[in-house]
Design a protein that fits this description.
This protein has 391 residues and is α/β, with parallel strands linked by helices. It has two domains: 132 residues, Rossmann fold; 195 residues, Dihydrodipicolinate Reductase, domain 2, CATH 3.30.360.10. It has ten helices and 17 strands. β1, α1 and β2 form a beta-alpha-beta unit. The protein starts with a strand and ends in a 6-residue tail after the last strand. The structure holds nicotinamide-adenine-dinucleotide. Nicotinamide-adenine-dinucleotide binds next to α1.
Length: 391
């Protein structure tokens, strides 16, 4: 039987709007869903953003005070899409109120903040979910099935990356993402967290890393809070210092013995949104790239007939998880926004059924532990083991 779940969304920027839109789509895309969202209240510190979101997505109420969302008795789950510096305070208030939490990645500004939120979520016994939405691309869920079915054998290599040029222009604005007080980590939190979650989901935990970082563009034009997006360009006005890393790369050792590499950058020239992986096992391999997110290159070794040796090109289709929630045809495209609808659905189903949701804070904590090891490696210049985070 369907269960209505009252939703409050805090932070009505890019993600807040996308999450809100996604909740409205859950009943349309997932007809059998048990968890049915009711958009109760949206909050933004800027009234015009809250008003805009209320009008577009049909929230019953709006506010400029996030505490009013947490305190609202008709709100069962809170969707946290503010910049990272507010995540600890709001997530702890949500946990104390005994409500459930969908928090955007990287969760905390630092691995330690993520660990702190993970602990309060665990102590309160609430259900959590984290916005690692790329996981939900049907082709990736299918890749996971093929790996688990042993189709490429034991994994030997993993090469992951997330290369974007959104800040490649030196006149790209200094939004909160470049500031330590608000974002915390640079690409290690913002982009590599997605790659790490993907690697963990596909082949399992990373045990050891050696990493490097760089900031290639040292200052940028200042932005105005409440205006525009982090894709905006401005050639005049005052500039200020970039405070976190543009680039991170690492060598990886996985618990299962696989070896790997990972690279993330926000200022690379040429690449638009190169989230990708190449995975090799003892009897097969995969290539995948977000710019062709509905396509998978799949290689299976055939000892009996090597005459047509090579990768097969698979397209997203109804045989893959979630594809048919969007369309019935093989090869028709699933979009980035669709992955957020799947994410909202997964979270609401877990809440409706009173069970843990994945990826939740435990999975975000695994990612944060790898990030902490990379940060230690920046200092030591050596291999660092992935260990629990001490607070
Ligand atoms: N999963 C993904 O693919 C993805 C993509 C982009 C961003 N994110 C994450 O989502 C979060 C938000 O990013 P964004 O790009 O939407 O940022 P954004 O700057 O577009 O939006 C943030 C919003 O929060 C509001 N806000 C700030 N302080 C507030 C307060 N005290 N109370 C209420 N609202 C407040 C801002 O006014 C703004 O509207 C970040 O944690 C980011 O890392 C995830």
């Amino acid at each position: 039987m369907a269960k209505t779940i009252g939703v409050g969304v805090i932070g009505m920027g890019w993600m807040g709007e996308l999450h809100s839109r996604s909740y409205t789509q859950v009943p349309i895309r997932f007809h059998e869903a048990v968890g049915q969202p009711k958009l109760v209240v949206c909050a933004d510190e800027f009234e015009h953003r809250a008003e805009h979101a209320q009008r577009l997505y049909g929230f019953e109420k709006r506010t400029t005070d996030w505490r009013a969302v947490v305190d609202d008795p008709s709100v069962d789950v809170i969707n946290l899409t503010t910049p990272n510096h507010l995540h600890v305070e709001i997530a702890e208030a949500v946990a104390q109120a005994g409500k459930h939490l969908l928090c955007e990645k990287p969760v905390g500004r630092s691995p330690q903040e993520t660990a702190r939120i993970a602990r309060s979520v665990e102590e309160a016994g609430i259900i959590s979910h984290v916005g690692f939405n790329y996981r939900w691309i049907p082709v990736l869920q299918y890749t996971k099935q093929l790996i688990d079915d042993g189709r490429i054998g034991a994994i030997t290599h993993y090469r992951g990356g997330f290369l974007e040029g959104y800040a490649a222009n030196p006149h790209a604005m200094l939004t909160w993402r470049f500031l330590k007080d608000i974002a915390g980590m640079g690409v290690l939190g913002d982009m590599m967290s997605h790659s790490l979650d993907m690697a963990h989901m596909l082949i399992g935990p990373i045990s050891e890393v050696v990493a490097q970082k760089e900031t290639f563009i040292l200052d940028r034009p200042q932005s105005v809070a409440g205006e525009g997006t982090h894709f905006d360009i401005r050639e005049d006005g005052p500039r200020a210092q970039v405070e976190n890393e543009d680039y991170v790369s690492a060598l990886l050792r996985f618990e299962n013995g696989a070896r790997g590499t990972m690279e993330a950058c926000r200022v690379v020239v040429g690449e638009k949104i190169a989230l990708m992986f190449q995975i090799n096992g003892r009897s097969g391999a995969f290539h995948w790239h977000l710019e062709r997110q509905n396509e998978l290159e799949f290689y299976e070794m055939d000892d009996k007939d090597a005459s047509n040796d090579g990768y097969r090109h698979l397209l997203s289709g109804p045989q893959m998880p979630f594809h048919s929630n969007f369309n019935p045809a093989e090869g028709l495209q699933i979009s980035y926004d669709d992955t957020k609808i799947i994410e909202a659905h997964q979270f609401l189903e877990a809440v409706a059924e009173g069970r843990p949701s994945e990826p939740g804070l435990p999975e975000a904590l695994r990612v944060a532990e790898v990030a902490a090891a990379m940060q230690r490696s920046w200092e030591s210049g050596s291999w660092e083991k992935v260990t629990p985070i001490s607070q």
